[in-house]
Write a sequence for this structure.
């Protein structure tokens, strides 16, 4: 058994929230640079250049890369041999988000869904906790803006729709989204499980290392197929046309019921802000 004080989780989450909101993922910066070099549309090329300049200025001046500093999403992978000491783990995480968003002067966007009254703290964070083997804790932070989140979808397909149905649902989601999610986008896809399992997988896919190849050969081929089909839509950077609507597609699958084929598509804008620490 390994004892971990939850103040360590607090420090990790706070530092990630402060850093990530001002620094777009470096792997995504590389994808944006590659897209800018290959872009054939003058308007879209200008948009990509502007995005890159903005991201550079944000990092240099320690200012938010996007005015929508998002709703904080936390993924915790807790080793079964870990014992937490100190305050309740969720309280430590929420305190970290509150302090980071105040210290960084980040926009506080969280409110009650019905009366629309702002909590004024960007709380509560969305916290996903998973038990794993071992005596370590892996904590990931994702600042999820809602320009892209609002374009996300869950499809409950019939089994007869098969792989073609999966492909069509993803491409349709991006096509209907158009310029709303600030393309070029990254797409996380969860296939299988149940309604909520598919959505969870789609969200977690957005944490994947940029440029990594899916270890599942079938999914790796499917990711490439879908990426090509999305870019063939020619929505382009910021909706200006061109051949760079999507930077990457990441997929995960899970066994599902014989009567169903759930597919969740989580849309992420080009301002990808996430990090992971292991304690």
């Amino acid at each position: 058994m390994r004892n971990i004080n939850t103040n360590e989780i607090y420090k990790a989450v706070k530092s990630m929230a402060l850093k990530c909101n001002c620094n777009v993922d470096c792997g995504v910066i590389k994808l944006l640079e590659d897209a800018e070099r290959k872009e054939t549309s003058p308007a879209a090329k200008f948009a990509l250049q502007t995005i890159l300049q903005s991201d550079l200025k944000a990092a240099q001046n320690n200012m938010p890369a996007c005015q929508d500093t998002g709703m904080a999403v936390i993924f915790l992978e807790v080793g079964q041999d870990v014992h937490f000491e100190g305050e309740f783990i969720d309280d430590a995480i929420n305190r970290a988000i509150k302090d980071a968003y105040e210290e960084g002067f980040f926009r506080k966007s969280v409110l009650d869904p019905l009366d629309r009254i702002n909590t004024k703290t960007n709380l509560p964070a969305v916290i996903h906790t998973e038990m794993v083997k071992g005596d370590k804790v892996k904590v990931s932070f994702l600042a999820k803006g809602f320009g892209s989140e609002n374009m996300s979808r869950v499809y409950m397909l019939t089994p007869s729709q098969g792989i073609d149905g999966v492909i069509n649902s993803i491409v349709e989601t991006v096509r209907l989204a158009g310029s709303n999610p600030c393309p070029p986008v990254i797409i996380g896809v969860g296939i299988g499980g149940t309604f909520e399992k598919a959505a969870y997988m789609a969200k977690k896919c957005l944490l994947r290392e940029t440029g990594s190849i899916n270890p599942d050969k079938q999914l790796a081929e499917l990711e490439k197929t879908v990426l090509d089909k999305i870019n063939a839509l020619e929505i382009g950077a910021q909706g200006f046309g061109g051949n760079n609507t999507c930077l990457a597609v990441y997929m995960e699958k899970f066994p599902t019921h014989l009567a169903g084929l759930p597919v969740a598509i989580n849309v992420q804008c080009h301002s990808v802000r996430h990090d992971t620490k292991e304690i």
Notes: The helical segments are 6-20, 26-38, 42-61, 89-103, 146-149, 162-177, 195-205, 217-231.
